[in-house]
Amino acid sequence: MLNKILVVDDTNADLTNIKNVVYEAGYVVVAANSGLEAVNKAKSEKPDLIFMDVVMDGMDGYEACRKLKEDPDTKAIPVVFVTSKNQKADKVWAELQGGEAFITKPFSSQQIVDQINEIETKKAS
E strands along the chain, which residues? Predict the structure, then answer.
């Protein structure tokens, strides 16, 4: 059962949108504005799932995901990328970094909820 979800985006509008969807779906929401903050919050907050933007200043989402997957404390946390990058190569690269899934912006609330449900189903089995 998922309880806490970390949402990472450096754009306030996108961050607020995803936070609201996750909160309205009944989950505790933790937010970060950068890849580095995401890595630190994942270690301290131990979320059950992370929604991560790719294009961010400093450490991008791909690098943050790699760091999370290299750390024994955070490697089991599923990362779902939410990004404006929508080329096939972007999706392949996201998978290679350890990403669980890929949602393209602009996203619908239903896409976020569907991903949460899919991850919950995987964790339950």
Answer: 4-8, 28-32, 49-52, 79-83, 101-104
